[in-house]
Task: structure prediction
Amino acid sequence: MYITKLKLKNWKNFQEAEINLRECTYLLGANALGKSNLLDVFRFLRDISKPQGGGLQKAVSDRDGIKKLRCLHAKRDTEVRIEVHFAADFDAEIAEWEYCVGFKAEGTGLQRIVITEETVKQKGNYLLIRPDKEDTKDKERLTQTHLEQIQTNQKFRDIAKFFSEVDYLHLVPQLLKYSDKIGGNYLEDDPFGQGFLKSLATTPKKTRASRLQRIQSALEKAIPQFEALQFESDEMGHPHLKARYKHYRPNAGWQKEKQFSDGTLRLIGILWSLLGSSSLLLLEEPELSLNDGIVEQIPVMMWRLQKERKKRRQTIITTHSESLLSNQGIDGRGIIILEPGQNGTKVRHINQEEEIKINAGFSIAQVVLPKARPALSEQLSLF
Result:
C-alpha cells in the first residue's frame, strides 16, 4: 500500500494544496517555502498513530501548539485538514483507502485541540464519519482521533500501522560521531541518526551482515581506497562501524566511525535506510556532504535497490541538488515544485511545456530547477 494523493488545508506554509505522489517523489523549492513542513505532515500522522504514547494532543503540542502549526494565512477558517489517499498501484483510478482528519483549537476553556472531521473510506464506502452521535453526547471524545485508539480503529488498523511506521532520516554525522560526549540524550524517533549504531546493533546478525555487504559494494565504488566495512562491539558493549582502507601495512588501514568523513557516514545511513523496512521513507537533502559524482547516482542506486525488493519502499525526498536532478532516470511525474504565492506556498507538478522538454532529453535540473530558485538570488552578490 502506497500514498498516492495528499490534500492539505491550513497546514503551515500551505493554505491549500493537492499533491499526487509516486514511488519516488522529489520536493523542489527555495528555502523557507515548506519542503520540510510538507514532510512533517507524515511525521505528524505518525505521531498521532504511535502505539506507545502518541495521540493528537501530543502531536500538536510537540509542534509548539496549533498557532505554530496552522497557516498564517488562515484568518477566518482556522481548521487544519489533512486528507490521504492510499492504493496498491500509483496509477489506480480509485483509492483503496482514504483517511481525513480536521481539527482546530477548542476556542474556550483549556484551548484543547478538537476534531472537526475524521473520516475513513474503503473503496469509496465510509467506515467512519465523525463527529457522530457519541461525540455529540460526550465532547471529550473529540479530543482524540479514532486513528490513535486500538478499540476504535480495528476496521482500518492498516492505516494506523502504515502511519506509525513512517521513517524519517536527516543524518547529522557529528551527532553520531560524538554521541558519547553529548550525553546520550536522544530525540524521540532519532530523526538525526544519533542512535544509528544502536539500530545496527539490534538488527538480527544475519540481516545486518547482508545489508553491510551490500553497502560495502557501493562504498568500494564511491570512496577511493575503500576495501571493507564491518560492525563490532567494543569491550564495553558499545556498537561501532569500522572501515578498512588500502595501506602498505595491513592492519593500519582500519578506521572507526569517528574517523569517517561526514559524507561517508551520510551515505551509509542513506543506503541502510533504503535497505530497511518497506514503510514510507522521508529523506531530507541526501546530497549534503557528498561528492557531486555520488549524488548524481543516488536515483540509480535507489532504483536498483528497489528493483530487488518484493515490496518497494515509497520515498519522498527534499533536495536543492543540481547533480541529483541531472540524472536522466528520474520520473517527471514524481517532481513537486513549491512556489511562493500571496496566500502561502503553492504546490504544482510539472506542466506540459516542461514535460515536452524532459521527454526530449533534458534533465529535471535543466528544465525545472531554475524555476525553484529564489527570484532575486543573483542579487546576493551585491550584498
